[in-house]
Amino acid sequence: MILIGQYDSPFVRRVGIALTLYDLPFEHWPWSTFGDADRLQAYSPLLRVPVLVADDGDILLDSHGIIDHVDGLVTSGSTMLPTDEPARRRAMKSVSLATGISDKAVSLFYENVLHDHPSTQWIERCKRQIGAALATLELEGSRRATAFWSGERIGHADIAIGAMLDHLIAAHPKLFDLEQYPALREHADLLRAMPVFQSIYQPFIPPA
Ligand SMILES: N[C@@H](CCC(=O)N[C@@H](CS)C(=O)NCC(=O)O)C(=O)O
Predict the structure, then answer these.
(1) 87-195: what fold?
(2) What CATH number belongs to 2-78?
(3) Nearest-CA neighbor of 50 among 7, 79, 100, 90?
(4) Disulfide-capable partner of 141 in 11, 64, 183, 196 (CB 3.0 to 4.6 Å)?
């Protein structure tokens, strides 16, 4: 398998971390969506990452689709999503909140750097959406009684939240302060201490 995209993308990083934790071998092509756009488009018509090239050459797009495929490659007992309800749908909701924040963080970043006249209305909307979703995750985290989001071992929700927080703080250091979200800050610290979060990592590089 080949994973295309840089690890400063929270979406690419969550896939890289999942593949690593699953012990699934993969090659990593750290292509930039801007700098490598020409060669990327052959794999990703939307010019987005992550892209996963399967061993048979099939191409998977979007971190959700890729993670779903990757979960199918491991034995059901070892997938990083609970199998029983309501734990499964709760974990999926947390993943959606985290990746939704990342969507908005990316959008907010592009609004500021790619537009001569960024829209105040759009910026305020993104900030409001990110703030409300962070508060929702903070509440979930503060009520949690387990070491990880969905139990005693790491799962996709933890990975999505950890990747989201690192990206959010790196891309918008002046806008979001983790001190306001103690449960999330504590969880980010726990995850950052894990070797996989340190090896599957790249400092944030703005598009050029
Ligand atoms: N929903 C997608 C989002 C992927 C995404 O937005 N990736 C960003 C990198 S962080 C990207 O490719 N941006 C380039 C663009 O949208 O033109 C996923 O979960 O993979």
Answers:
(1) Glutathione S-transferase Yfyf (Class Pi); Chain A, domain 2 (1.20.1050)
(2) 3.40.30.10
(3) 7
(4) 183
